[in-house]
Specification:
The complex is a heterodimer. Chain A is mainly α. In chain B, 73% of the residues lie in helices and 3% in strands. Chain B has 25 helices and 2 strands. In chain B, strands 1-2 form a two-stranded antiparallel sheet. The chains are: A mainly alpha, B mainly alpha. At the A-B interface, helix 6, helix 8, helix 11, helix 13 and helix 15 of A face strand 1, helix 5, helix 6, helix 8 and helix 24 of B.
Chain lengths: 515, 633
C-alpha cells in the first residue's frame, strides 16, 4: 500500500505528460483529480493504522542493490503518519488554487506531482539512500516551481533555495555514507547497509556521534529553517507562486523537523542528549526572532513566512525537550502548522490573484468588501496565534508544558512568543481588513468564489477538529514517541523527567542557562 | 424534585454554542429580530438547565462532582471535563442570568444594525466561552474559555470595525490580555511539572503535600499575572477603557458583569494554592486596593458616560482583588455577583441614554433627562445608590463585607482597608456626579436631539436588574450568611477571612463605609447640581490634579513612549538591520566568497552560481567522508 502511495502521484505525472498540449483546459482539473488519488490511499493508510503500535507499520521491503545494501524499504509510524496525510491533502488543494498559473501549465502540474512523490517518499523511506534520493528529488521540482512560475526575483530566490539546501544535502550524504561504512566495519559479514533499522544497532563512539549528529542536524536545520539558516525562506516564499508557498511552508519545512526527530534522536542519542542546549537555544531564538521580525514586515507573505520561523522553533524546542508531551507537541505542531500556514498562504494568494500586490500598505478595510475572506483569514490567524480550541494551541501548549520540566528557562522565553504572535497577526489583520475601505482597487474586490470556499473549508474544519479532538492524531503518535524516548533512555543515562517538586525542577534546569 | 446529573451539564455550554453555530451559518437568513430571539432563547435555555442543576446546592444536599466529556491532551492531563460545585454553579447562574437579560436588551439596542445577526452570533459564542471557563474541571480547559472570551471580546470591541479606533481597541485588548496570559501559561507549566496534571482535583488534593517553599508563591503570582490582565488591574488595565468602543450591551456583559471577573474567579478557584502563598495573596490584595483607588480618581475626571463606568469597573474589580487577596473569597465572589447586577444595570442604562441621545456619550451635552426617560432615570438611580454602598442595596452588603474582612486581617491590611474606605467615598462621588450630570439640572442637549424612553425590550431588563440590585445583597448579610453556606463546599479546607467578631466593631465599620458613601454622594450633589459654569469652577479648583484625572494620568502615552515605540523600533532594527544586513548578508557573503574563489581557480569561466554551489557541495562531501570515516576508524 505504501509503495502505491508513493508512486500514484508519479503515475499521475506520467498521465499528465500524455495529455496533448492543446487540451490545456484538461491539465489542471486532471491534475487535481490525479492528486486526489494519493489522498484516498493516504486515507486508507490512516484508517488501517494500528493505534497502540509504536513501531513501523505496513512495512514493505525489496532489495534494490545488494552489494551496497540499498533497499526499497518503506514504513509508516506515528511520526510520519500525520505528515503523509497532510501532504496528500495539501496537493489537491493547492493545485485547485493554481488557476492563476497559465504559463506552461502542463509542466507545472507535472512538477507538482513529482514533488508529491518526493515528499511522500521522504516521509516513508526507511532506507537512508532511498530517503536521500527522495530528499533530493524534491529540490528539483521546487526549484522549478519557484524559478519558472515565481515572481520578479524568482531566479535569485530559486538559486538561493537550491544552493542553501544543496549544501545541507552534501553534509547529509556524507554522513549517510559514513554510517554505511561503519556498518560494514561492525557487521560480521562486513557488508554495507543503508537500512535505517539496521543502522539503529550500530555502536557509534561519542565523538563520531557528535560529528554525524552535526552533519544531519545542519542539513535539517537549513530545511526547518532554524535561526540563523532561515534567510532563504522569506525570499523563496515571496517569489514562489501560491501553490509553491503552501507546500514549502506546509510540508517542505517539515522535512527538517521530521529528519531531526526520525534520525538525529534515534541514531545519535548520546549526541542528542549532550547537544540539547545548542538546539534548544537556536529553537528559542528562532521563536522570538522570527516573531519580532514578522511584526514589521511590509509584505503580507513575508510576514507569514517569518511566522513560520517562529512556529517551527516550537517544533524544534518540543523535539529537544525529550519528554513525551514535548515530542507529541512537536509531531502535532508539524501537522498543525501545515494546515494553518498553508491556509494563510492560500488566502494571501487569493488576495494576490485579485490585487496583484501583497503589500500590507496597499490594503485597508477589506472586511467590509470581502467578509468571507476576512473571516477565513481571521480564523486562520487565530489558529496560528494559538487560540485554544483551534489546532495551533494544542501543539504549542504541549511543547511549552512538555519542555518546562526539562528546559524551564527556555520554555519561559518561548512562551513569550505567544504574545508576539498575537501582535504581528492581529496588527496585520487590522491593517489589511479593518478600518475604512481604502483605494479604488480595493473597492472592486470580489469575495471568495464557491470554489475558493471549497478549498479553504476542509482546512478550517481540520483546524477545528484537531483543536478540539487532537486525539485522532495524538492517539497514533503517542506510542511512537514513547518508543523514541525509550530508546534514548536505554542507550544513554538520560532520564525523562517526572513531575517533582519545583525546587528540583529549577535545580535540574538551572544548569541549562537562559535561552 | 428533578435531579439533573452532572453528565447533562454539557448542555449548558451546548445551547449557546449551538446558537452561535446556527446564527453563524443561517443568521442572515433568519434576520432581525428572529436571530436575536433565538440567541436569547439559547441563553435562557442554558440558564434553565443550570438553575435546575444547582438546586441541590441550594437545599444543601449537593456535592461537587465532575463529568468527563472527552480526552484532549492526555500527555498533560488536559481533558474536557465539567466540574460542578457551588462556585461554578453561582458563576454559571450569574453569566446566564445577566447574560440573558443583556441578550434581550440587545434585540432593541442593535435594532437596524446591518450586522444584527452577527452580533448575536458573537454574543452566544461569548456566553458559551464564559461558561466553558467557569465549568472547566482543569486549568487547560479553563484556559480554553479564558482565551475564547478574549477572542469574543476582540470581535465585539471591534464589532464596528470600519472605525479605526474600534479595530485598534480590539487588538489592544487581546494583546494586553496576552501579556497577562504569558504569566498564566508559566503558571500552568509550573503546575504541570509539579503535579504531572492540570486537573483541579489532582492539584488541590495534593497542593498541601507537594508545594513547599517558594513554589506556591511563584505559581500564585503567575496565576495572578493572568488575572491582572483579564480583570484589568494595574498595570494591565489600559485595555478596558478603550474596550468601550464596542456596542454598549457588550460593555455591560463582557467588560463589566462577566468576562472581566474571570481573574477574580481564577484566584478564588485556586484558593488551595493561594492558601499556601500568603505573599502572593498580599500582592493580589495590594494590587486590588491600589487599582481601586487609582481608577476611582480617574473616573472622577471623565466626561464620557461610558468611560466613567469603565474606570468604575476597574475600580470595583480592584475591590474584588482586595477581597480574594485578603482570603475573603466569599466576599470577593459576593461582590462579583452584586457588581454584575448593578454594573450591568448601569451600563445598560447608559446605553439607553446613549440611544436616546442619538449616539452621544458626552455628559456635558446631557442633563435634565429624567423627564424624558423616567424608567432609565429610576433604574439607573437604583444602580448608582447600589454601587455607592448605601444600605440596604446590594453594593452595601458586599462592599461592607470586603472592608470589614480586610480590616480584621490587621497589620498592613489596615492600610488597604483605609484605601478601600477612601475609594468608597470617591465611588459615591463620581457615580452621583454622573447621575446628576445626566439626569438632573437643565437640558444641555445639542440641537436636533429629542431624547425618548427606550423600547420595552430595553427597559424590562433594566427593571429586572434594578430589582436584583436592590435585593441581590440579601443573599449574604451578617444576619443570614446564605452565600457563605452555599459556597462552603467549594472552599473546603481553605481558611476564609472573616469580619471581626464583636457586633460593635462591625457596626462601626459599616457606619464608616456608609458614611463615606453618603459624604461622597452629597459632595457630588452639591458640586454638580448647579449650572455648568459652577461645576467647571469646582473642577478647576483642583488645579493640575483634575487634568491628570481627565487624561488618566497619561498612562497610555507613557506605555506608548516606553514600550510600544521602542518595541517597534527594535523590531524594525532586527528585521531591516540584523536580518537583512547581518544574517542574510553573511549568507550572501559566503556565496560571493565561493564565487570569487571559483573565479580565481578558473578565471575564464564566469558560470552559474549553481556550478560553484555544486563544486562547493562535492568538496564538502569528500572532506566530510574523510573526516567521518577517520573518526570511526
Amino acid at each position: 500500500m505504501l509503495t502505491l502511495l508513493v508512486l500514484t502521484p508519479l503515475l499521475g505525472a506520467v498521465v499528465i505528460s500524455l495529455v496533448p498540449a492543446r487540451r490545456r483546459e484538461l491539465q489542471l482539473p486532471l491534475g487535481i483529480a490525479l492528486s486526489a488519488a494519493p489522498l484516498g490511499v493516504a486515507g486508507a493508510v490512516f484508517v488501517s493504522f494500528e493505534k497502540g503500535e509504536g513501531s513501523f507499520q505496513m512495512v514493505e521491503k525489496m532489495v534494490w542493490w545488494e552489494p551496497w545494501g540499498i533497499s526499497w524499504h518503506l514504513g509508516v509510524d506515528g511520526i510520519s503518519l500525520g505528515l503523509v496525510a497532510l501532504t496528500t491533502l495539501l496537493f489537491p488543494l493547492s493545485l485547485a488554487a493554481s488557476d492563476a498559473i497559465t504559463h506552461r501549465r502542463k509542466a507545472f502540474v507535472m512538477a507538482m506531482l513529482v514533488l508529491e512523490t518526493g515528499l511522500i517518499g521522504t516521509f516513508l523511506a526507511l532506507d537512508l539512500v532511498l530517503f536521500f534520493v527522495f530528499f533530493e528529488v524534491i529540490l528539483v521540482p521546487m526549484y522549478l516551481i519557484i524559478g519558472i512560475w515565481g515572481g520578479e526575483r524568482r531566479v535569485y530566490a530559486a538559486v538561493k533555495f537550491f544552493i542553501y539546501t544543496a549544501v545541507g544535502s552534501a553534509l547529509l550524504l556524507a554522513a549517510i555514507i559514513a554510517l554505511a561504512v561503519m556498518h560494514a566495519s561492525q557487521s560480521v559479514e562486513g557488508a554495507l547497509s543503508f537500512d535505517y533499522l539496521a543502522l539503529l544497532d550500530l555502536e557509534i563512539s561519542s565523538t563520531a556521534q557528535m560529528w554525524l549528529f552535526g552533519a544531519f542536524a545542519l542539513a535539517f536545520a537549513i530545511k526547518v529553517p532554524l535561526f540563523p539558516f532561515h534567510t532563504w525562506l522569506p525570499d523563496a516564499h515571496v517569489e514562489a507562486p501560491t501553490a509553491g508557498s503552501v507546500l514549502l511552508a506546509g510540508v517542505l519545512l517539515k522535512l527538517g523537523t521530521y529528519g531531526l526527530l526520525r534520525f538525529n534522536l534515534t541514531l545519535f542519542p548520546e549526541a542528542t542528549v549532550s547537544l540539547v542546549p545548542v538546539l534548544a537555544v537556536l529553537a528559542v531564538v528562532g521563536i522570538i526572532y522570527g516573531a519580532v521580525v514578522a511584526i514589521v514586515q511590509p509584505d503580507l507573505k513575508k510576514l507569514v513566512a517569518y511566522s513560520s520561523v517562529s512556529h517551527l522553533g516550537f517544533v524544534v524546542l518540543g523535539i529537544f525537550a525529550l519528554t513525551s508531551a514535548g515530542l507529541q507537541g512537536a509531531v502535532i505542531q508539524n501537522v498543525n502548522h501545515g494546515l494553518t500556514t498553508g491556509a494563510l498562504f492560500l488566502l494571501v494568494g487569493m488576495l494576490y490573484d485579485r490585487r496583484h500586490t501583497k503589500k500590507i500598505a496597499d490594503f485597508g478595510g477589506l472586511a467590509s468588501r470581502v467578509p468571507m475572506m476576512a473571516g477565513f483569514f481571521l480564523f486562520m490567524a487565530f489558529a496560528s496565534i494559538g487560540l485554544p480550541g483551534l489546532n495551533g494551541f494544542v501543539g504549542e501548549f504541549l511543547v511549552l508544558v512538555g519542555s518546562f520540566p526539562s528546559l524551564p528557562a527556555y520554555a519561559v522565553v518561548a512562551a513569550f512568543g505567544v504574545v508576539l504572535a498575537a501582535i504581528y497577526m492581529l496588527w496585520a489583520y487590522q491593517r489589511v481588513f479593518t478600518g475604512p475601505l481604502t483605494g479604488m482597487a480595493n473597492r472592486k474586490l470580489v469575495d471568495l468564489s464557491p470554489k475558493e470556499t471549497a478549498i479553504l473549508s476542509p482546512l478550517a474544519a481540520l483546524v477545528l477538529l484537531l483543536g478540539l479532538y487532537p486525539g485522532i492524531l495524538l492517539d497514533r503518535t503517542a506510542p511512537s514517541v514513547e518508543a523514541i524516548l525509550d530508546r534514548i533512555e536505554q542507550t544513554t543515562d538520560y532520564q525523562v523527567p517526572s513531575p517533582g517538586r519545583l525546587e528540583d525542577v529549577f535545580a535540574s534546569g538551572s544548569g541549562d542557562g537562559e535561552g | 424534585m428533578i435531579e439533573l446529573p452532572t453528565e447533562a451539564l454539557w448542555l449548558v455550554i451546548a445551547f449557546p454554542l449551538g446558537g452561535a453555530l446556527l446564527l453563524h451559518f443561517a443568521g442572515r437568513w433568519l434576520g432581525e429580530p428572529l436571530a436575536g430571539y433565538l440567541a436569547s432563547a439559547a441563553s435562557l435555555a442554558a440558564l434553565a438547565v443550570a438553575a435546575v442543576a444547582a438546586v441541590p446546592f441550594f437545599t444543601g444536599e449537593g456535592h461537587p462532582s465532575q463529568s468527563l466529556l472527552w480526552e484532549w491532551m492526555p500527555a498533560v492531563g488536559a481533558s474536557f471535563e465539567i466540574s460542578w460545585d457551588p462556585l461554578s454553579a453561582l458563576m454559571t447562574l450569574v453569566v446566564t442570568g445577566v447574560g440573558s437579560l443583556i441578550h434581550i436588551y440587545s434585540v432593541g439596542y442593535m435594532h437596524g444594525d446591518p450586522r444584527f445577526a452577527r452580533f448575536f452570533t458573537y454574543l452566544n459564542l461569548f456566553t458559551a466561552s464564559m461558561l466553558t471557563l467557569v465549568l472547566a474541571g482543569n486549568y487547560a480547559m479553563l484556559f480554553v474559555g479564558w482565551e475564547l472570551v478574549g477572542l469574543c471580546s476582540y470581535l465585539l470591541i471591534s464589532f464596528w470595525f470600519t472605525r479605526p479606533s474600534a479595530a485598534s481597541a480590539g487588538k489592544k485588548a487581546f494583546v494586553v490580555n496576552r501579556i497577562g496570559d504569558f504569566g498564566f501559561l508559566i503558571a500552568l507549566m509550573l503546575i504541570f511539572s509539579t503535579f504531572g496534571t492540570l486537573s483541579y482535583t489532582g492539584v488541590f488534593d495534593r497542593a498541601a503535600q507537594e508545594l513547599s517553599g517558594w513554589a506556591p508563591t511563584i505559581i500564585g503570582l503567575m496565576l495572578a499575572a493572568g488575572a491582572v490582565g483579564k480583570s484589568a488591574q494595574i498595570p494591565l488595565y489600559v485595555w478596558l477603557p478603550d474596550a468601550m468602543e464596542g456596542p454598549t450591551p457588550v460593555s455591560a456583559l463582557i467588560h463589566a458583569a462577566t468576562m472581566v471577573t474571570a481573574g477574580v474567579y481564577v484566584i478564588a478557584r485556586s484558593a488551595p494554592i493561594f492558601e499556601l502563598a500568603p505573599v502572593a495573596s498580599g500582592v493580589v490584595a495590594a494590587v486590588g486596593a491600589i487599582t481601586a483607588l487609582w481608577a476611582a480618581t480617574i473616573a472622577i475626571g471623565q466626561s464620557d458616560i461610558k468611560r466613567v463606568l469603565a474606570y468604575s469597573t476597574i475600580s470595583q474589580l480592584g475591590y474584588m482583588f482586595l477581597a480574594v487577596g485578603a482570603t475573603a473569597y466569599v466576599a470577593g465572589v459576593f461582590h462579583l455577583m452584586t457588581h454584575a447586577f448593578f454594573k450591568a444595570l448601569l451600563f445598560l442604562a447608559a446605553g439607553s441614554v446613549i440611544h436616546a441621545m442619538g449616539g452621544r456619550q458626552d455628559m456635558e451635552e446631557m442633563g435634565g433627562l429624567r423627564k424624558a426617560m423616567p424608567v432609565t432615570f429610576v433604574t439607573m438611580g437604583v444602580g448608582v445608590v447600589a454601587i455607592a454602598g448605601i444600605p440596604p442595596l446590594a453594593g452595601f452588603w458586599s462592599k461592607d463585607e470586603i472592608l470589614s474582612v480586610v480590616f480584621n486581617q490587621g497589620g498592613w491590611y489596615t492600610a488597604l482597608w483605609l484605601i478601600g474606605l477612601i475609594t468608597a467615598l470617591l465611588t459615591a462621588f463620581y457615580m452621583f456626579r454622573q447621575f446628576v450630570m445626566v439626569f438632573l439640572g437643565k437640558p444641555r442637549w445639542p440641537e436636533g436631539v429629542t431624547p425618548h424612553e427606550s423600547p420595552r425590550s430595553m427597559t424590562v431588563p433594566l427593571v429586572i436588574l434594578a430589582i436584583l440590585s436592590v435585593a441581590g445583597g440579601l443573599v449574604n448579610t451578617p444576619f443570614r450568611l446564605g452565600l457563605e453556606h452555599f459556597l462552603e463546599p467549594s472552599f473546603e479546607g481553605v481558611r476564609l477571612g472573616h469580619p471581626p467578631e464583636g457586633v460593635g466593631l462591625v457596626l462601626v465599620l459599616a457606619a464608616l463605609a456608609v458614611g463615606a458613601g453618603v459624604v461622597g454622594a452629597a459632595m457630588a450633589f452639591f458640586a454638580y447640581h448647579r449650572p455648568p459654569e459652577a461645576w467647571r469652577r469646582f473642577q478647576s479648583g483642583f488645579g493640575k490634579l483634575w487634568g491628570w484625572w481627565e487624561n488618566a494620568y497619561g498612562v497610555d502615552d507613557a506605555y506608548g513612549a516606553m514600550l510600544v515605540t521602542p518595541g517597534r523600533r527594535l523590531s524594525e532594527q532586527t528585521a531591516f538591520g540584523v536580518d537583512m544586513k547581518v544574517v542574510d548578508g553573511a549568507v550572501n557573503g559566503v556565496a560571493w566568497l565561493v564565487q570569487a574563489t571559483g573565479r580565481l581557480i578558473r578565471p575564464a569561466q564566469s558560470g552559474l552560481v549553481r556550478q560553484y554551489g555544486l563544486w562547493f557541495g562535492l568538496g564538502l562531501v569528500a572532506l566530510l567522508i574523510w573526516i567521518l570515516v577517520r573518526g570511526v576508524a
